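A reminder from the course coordinator: this example appears on the midterm review sheet, so study it carefully.

Given structure:
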């Protein structure tokens, strides 16, 4: 386990989406976060006390979380210098970047001298199997998206809360660095060799013999040219009974690809269902989760209602309005004593 409390790093970042790991921890593990470390040129904030490494250590922080993402997931020089400053105060350092902390000699040397640890979250387990597609028991839901970084992790975690409030045994299965830091376990799928992606999900979410649910955090998008491979492996390996579609209506184009437009919701849902049917023929959609952070309250509610009418599925912003409509619909759709509901997409 990574020692808490945490100091959440924003550094010099000016990309709201790029600080999603720090933001996720601030939202879902607030009791473990003592402050945020941002430089003067960063306009972003998590609403936590602003601290440097020494101040955070004095406040009890045990670990600096480098909770930012950048192009290529590299350790820049400024980030390395800040990590060294944290180590010098006696803090551990954790990173979800593709470039490993252990591959930077200065960090390794400093950590050894101070007796602290470096945690690379994007290390997949060893000896993952190749996926088989063999039918396995249990209820599994997978979140899918029109794009990457549209709220799949948030929707999955908030749906877990809503189901547990109804007495349902619901377990979050993390597949990205933020989710792993929140849950304390999982598989960083984008660091898994492609041949083993579906097998990794079969391992992460094995057969279960109760009426509970494994809620699997989605990654990327089937329609994103850069990340569709991970999304496809997830759809096959998850063998989901249910899909929850996530979408950010404020997006003008695919993240990082201004020459690619986002797919229509109906088209996106149909294609995800089609691909999922290879290993789960009876899969069905159970709702739409919108990220309405850039809309006012009235606009957000109107869009959720219009989307629900258009697709014939419950639609909500789980973070803003709660995941109750989707949780209730799921339990009706899959209640063992009742036949399947007639509305299906």
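Designed residues:
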């Amino acid at each position: 386990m990574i020692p808490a409390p945490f100091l959440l790093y924003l550094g010099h970042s000016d990309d709201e989406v790029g600080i999603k790991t720090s933001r996720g921890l601030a939202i879902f593990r607030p009791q473990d976060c003592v402050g945020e470390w941002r430089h003067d040129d960063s306009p972003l904030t998590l609403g936590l006390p602003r601290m440097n490494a020494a101040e955070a250590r004095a406040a009890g922080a045990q670990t600096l979380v480098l909770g930012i993402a950048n192009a290529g997931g590299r350790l820049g020089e400024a980030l390395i210098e800040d990590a060294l400053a944290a180590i010098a105060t006696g803090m551990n350092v954790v990173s979800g970047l593709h470039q490993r902390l252990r591959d930077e000699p200065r960090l390794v040397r400093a950590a050894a001298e101070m007796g602290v640890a470096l945690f690379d979250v994007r290390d997949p387990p060893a000896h993952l199997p190749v996926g088989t597609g063999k039918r396995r028991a249990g209820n599994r839901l997978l979140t899918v998206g029109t794009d990457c970084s549209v709220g799949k992790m948030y929707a999955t975690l908030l749906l877990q809360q809503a189901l547990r409030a109804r007495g349902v045994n619901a377990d979050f299965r993390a597949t990205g660095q933020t989710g792993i830091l929140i849950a304390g376990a999982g598989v960083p799928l984008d660091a898994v060799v492609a041949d083993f992606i579906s097998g990794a999900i079969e391992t992460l979410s094995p057969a279960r013999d109760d009426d509970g649910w494994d809620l699997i955090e989605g990654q990327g998008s089937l329609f994103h040219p850069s990340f569709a491979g991970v999304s496809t492996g997830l759809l096959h390996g998850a063998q989901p009974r249910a899909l929850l579609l996530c979408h950010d209506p404020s997006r003008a184009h695919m993240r990082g690809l201004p020459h690619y437009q986002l797919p229509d919701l109906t088209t996106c849902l149909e294609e995800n269902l089609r691909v999922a049917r290879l290993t789960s023929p009876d899969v069905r959609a159970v709702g739409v989760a919108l990220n309405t952070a850039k809309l006012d309250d009235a606009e957000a509610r109107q869009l959720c209602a219009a989307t629900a009418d258009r697709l014939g599925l419950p639609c909500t912003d789980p973070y803003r309005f709660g995941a109750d409509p989707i949780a209730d619909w799921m339990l009706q759709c899959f209640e063992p004593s009742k036949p399947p509901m007639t509305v299906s997409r």
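The two ends are 41 Å apart (CA to CA). The domain at 6-120 is CATH 3.40.50.720 (Rossmann fold).
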